[in-house]
Design brief:
This protein has 328 residues and is an alpha/beta fold. 41% of the residues lie in helices and 15% in strands. The strands form 2 sheets. Strands 1, 2, 3, 4, 5, 6, 7, 8, 9 and 12 form a 10-stranded parallel beta sheet that branches. Strands 10-11 form a two-stranded antiparallel ribbon. Helix 10 runs parallel beside helix 11 (284-292). It is globular, with a radius of gyration of 19 Å. Bound molecules: iron/sulfur cluster.
Length: 328
């Protein structure tokens, strides 16, 4: 498909939401000359968002390590020898203290992550109390707890959960190289249960896991063709953690990472696209390109679950240099 041939669908994308993206269209977007791709992503971004605003979330690991799943990138899996030590579910008061600190540091959303295949009902009692407490502090709430049944999603909704994170990780074709303990369809089922319960969906993936560009095309096509676009789309750059199967391997060209952000922005115009894991090793200039490509959310704080994240000072300096302000 020529550049001109996707003018019409792109103009349409700025005005409406589409759920019928073909892989050919998305492949063409990935292959556009970089200035053209960034221009288009900025145009779509400005049609829906203030380009100077960045939504800030904080992520806390409320239950660390000991996870029975085998996600090849994850140091919390019991299948791999890593430096992560398993810890039990945190106490509610300790979580609320962290939420207060996050609010004081400027976060508007507080995400709680637990390394479970799926939550047990007695664990969910405690998580629901955390959600209620965090909400009472005036923060938006988000949780990532593994697979959910429809009933569990309803319980979290009743507790006041605003967002649920459950990533697709990669394309359907590459998925089996990364995880064998649950299927792609399991993930889609949880996303449907969350959506049906009336909770906003946070769903994205990870790039730099040895996939090729066609897998990035497939991942974006799956996300953009969900019945409703995820309200939040985290795009993570693999953090290579010692002891995991993905600890070594060729690092992704940063320009290919920026391209993935831009294509996510164009195909899901109203979603908040989050620059997530991998920022610690990313230059300020690459992050600036990601903001130009339409990223408008970051995780704030020194740790993302168990992997390092830039310190608050570095983020504040970068936002200041770029003239960006926290989204209110
Ligand atoms: S990514 Fe989540 S589900 Fe997968 S091993 Fe890590 S904690 Fe478990």
């Amino acid at each position: 498909m020529t550049t001109a041939a996707i003018e019409a669908p792109l103009a349409h994308a700025q005005a409406t939401l589409r759920h019928d993206w073909s892989r050919e269209e998305i492949r063409t977007l990935f292959a556009l000359p970089f200035p053209e791709l960034i221009f288009r992503a900025q145009s779509v971004h400005r049609a829906h968002f203030d380009p100077t605003e960045v939504q800030i979330s904080t992520l806390l690991s409320i239950k660390t390590g000991g996870c029975p799943e085998d996600c090849a990138y994850c140091p919390q899996s019991v299948h791999y020898e890593t430096e992560v030590r398993a810890e039990k579910l945190m106490d509610i008061d300790a979580v609320l203290a962290e939420a207060r600190a996050a609010r004081a540091a400027g976060a508007s959303r507080f995400c709680m992550g637990a390394a479970w295949r799926e939550p047990k009902d007695r664990d969910l009692d405690k998580v629901c109390a955390m959600v209620e407490g965090v909400r009472a502090l005036g923060l938006e709430t988000c949780a990532t707890l593994g697979m959910l049944t429809p009933a569990q999603a309803e319980r979290l909704k009743a507790a006041g959960l605003d967002y649920y994170n459950h990533n697709l990780d990669t394309s359907p074709e590459y998925y089996g190289e990364i995880i064998t303990t649950r299927t792609y369809q399991d993930r889609l089922d949880t996303l449907a249960n969350v959506r049906d319960a009336g909770i906003h969906v946070c769903c994205g993936g990870i790039v730099g896991m040895g996939e090729d560009v066609e897998d990035r095309v497939g991942m974006i096509a799956t996300l953009a063709n969900l019945p409703v676009h995820p309200e939040s789309v985290p795009i993570n750059l693999l953090v290579q953690v010692a002891g995991t199967p993905l600890a070594t391997g060729r690092r992704l060209d940063p320009i290919d990472f920026v391209r993935t952000i831009a294509v996510a922005r164009i195909t899901m115009p109203k979603s908040v696209v989050r620059l997530s894991a991998g920022r610690e090793d990313m230059s300020d200039e690459t992050q600036a390109l990601c903001f130009l490509a339409g990223a408008n959310s970051i995780f704030y704080g020194p740790k993302l679950l168990t992997t390092p994240n830039p310190g608050r000072d570095r983020d504040l300096r970068l936002m200041d240099r770029l003239g960006l302000v926290p989204m209110t």
